[in-house]
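hey can u check if this looks right to u? its 343 residues, i copy pasted from the old doc so theres a chance i mangled smth
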Amino acid sequence: MHKQNRSRFFITMSALIGAILFAIYIHITNGTFDMSVKDIFTTLLRMNPTNDFDLVIFEFRLPRIVIAALVGLGLGIAGTVVQGISRNGLADPGILGINAGAGASIVIFMFFFQMELAVSGSSNWLSIIIMPIFGFVGGLIAAILIYIFSWTNGKLDTQRLILSGIAISTGFGALSLYISLKMRESDFEMATVWMSGSIYNANWIFILAMIPWLLILVPIIYRKAYLLDYFQLEESSIKSLGIQVEKEKAILLLSSIGVISACVSVSGSIGFIGLIAPHIAKQLVGIHHRYVLPASAAIGMFLVIFSDYLAKTIFAPAEIPVGIIVAILGVPYFLYLLMKTKA
């Protein structure tokens, strides 16, 4: 059985990697300035570089694709953790308000500190490096509030978890909107697009800012993947195995909040990836989280890369935020899961 699961996992991951490569191919070759595969390879291999191709690939498309891949990976993994900890298939960092908490904190940073950094002459990279830290604090505050309102009779009530998350998400969303309305007109437009979930302004500094968070936190989560399997059991059964339940849940939750904060700081609030990816992954590779986590990460990568391709091409030359495309895909799936849960 174990061998069969491994075989199923490797076949699925091979197919997902193929889907990701296809999404990268159509993303990098299509746009306002179309390019052939030959143009891309000659530019990447420095065989016949031109300024136009260098600008399009290295300054616009490649950073955008890498950011989309990293954000999809992070949100897919974080969503798997949140669902595993809460034992609720409808849980998602966006629905629970963790995205909104991180986003509100970053909007506050943009309002109060961005201008000071600009006036003092500090380079833009400093603010980009600091933003995930603010996002972590906001996401942590949201998670603590969710736990407080969802904790009854010494345990986490999964039904109250969703209701509390929706309320907290709405509250932080209103706070973000209120603060953004106090911004200058140009900053407000930037904040509004960012809150909708957008990576059109991606650059290599964004990538360097979020990679350390992922390199540190994702391995921590994967090493504890077996605990997410145990968390599906009754709490008394888990404790009988000698597992410090609340301590391990706190480590996993803090790690996932850090991943979410890094993603939100560079892409804004992109919802539903953390909801969709784990469900599809479990259907493809089974319920063991050592397989679900990488599959969910790969599905998240594909969804964000492909959605960003649609976002930049559907109404070209105008663009719409990738978060809107993901929401269009995610809302019907969420309703389907809701109906399935009721049934």
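The beta strands are 151-152, 155-156.
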